[in-house]
């Protein structure tokens, strides 16, 4: 088997496709992500401090009214980077982890192998994407940052490198389980459709 290929499509093409689809998807979804981040920030306000938004729909209208329509795409740059990079990291690391596991005596192309590979893909995706995720969330929740670089530098200077990995375990739990379900489902669908193993 040629290790540069996954199925019948070159690995680099799948990585490029993951980068592109991740970027396009977040351009469309950024307003929803922004509202989610702002509403989560509201939940951290001290007791008795009134929130800015009455709910999700009110948040959309308030943001547009007070900050303009373009504000719904606040943090778009780091969000595109995050989504594109995490998509590509998941795909590339899943394939590599699975191939490594299959070289261990006793391991076969089984559901357990897919679970381990999915968890590996989630781990690598969080390691690579967590700093971008932190910057993205901070820019969406705080308009005082000038740009992505300013947010990164200020966070690093004020809180240190580990600030970029806050929430690592919950994030891994989310992405790890997501990758297990996604790749296990894709593997099974591929086998059903083609009648053969995902990897030759």
UniProtKB/TrEMBL annotation:
Membrane-crossing segments per the record: 12-29, 111-132
Keywords, comma-separated and alphabetical: Membrane, Repeat, Transmembrane, Transmembrane helix, Transport
An example Gene Ontology CC term for this record: membrane
Solcar repeat start-end pairs: 9-100, 109-192
Listed InterPro entries: MCP_dom_sf, MCP_transmembrane, Mito_Metabolite_Transporter
Localization per Swiss-Prot or TrEMBL: Membrane
The keyword rRNA-binding appears for this protein: no
Pfam families for the chain: Mito_carr
Protein topology in the membrane: Multi-pass membrane protein
Family according to the record: Belongs to the mitochondrial carrier (TC 2.A.29) family.
Protein name in the entry: Mitochondrial uncoupling protein 2 isoform X2
Organism: Populus euphratica (Euphrates poplar)
């Amino acid at each position: 088997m040629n290790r540069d290929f996954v199925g019948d499509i070159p690995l680099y093409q799948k990585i490029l496709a993951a980068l592109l689809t991740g970027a396009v998807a977040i351009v469309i979804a950024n307003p929803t992500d922004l509202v989610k981040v702002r509403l989560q920030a509201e939940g951290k306000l001290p007791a008795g401090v009134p929130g800015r938004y009455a709910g999700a729909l009110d948040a959309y209208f308030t943001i547009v009214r007070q900050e303009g329509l373009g504000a719904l795409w606040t943090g778009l740059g780091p969000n595109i980077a995050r989504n594109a990079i995490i998509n590509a990291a998941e795909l590339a690391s899943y394939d590599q982890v699975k191939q490594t596991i299959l070289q261990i005596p006793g391991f076969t192309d089984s559901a357990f192998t897919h679970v381990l590979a999915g968890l590996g893909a989630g781990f690598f995706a969080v390691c690579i994407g967590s700093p971008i995720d932190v910057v993205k969330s901070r820019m969406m929740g705080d308009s005082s940052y000038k740009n992505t670089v300013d947010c990164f530098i200020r966070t690093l200077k004020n809180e240190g490198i580990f600030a970029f990995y806050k929430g690592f375990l919950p994030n891994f739990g989310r992405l790890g389980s997501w990758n297990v379900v996604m790749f296990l489902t894709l593997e099974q669908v591929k086998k059903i459709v083609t009648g053969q193993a995902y990897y030759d």
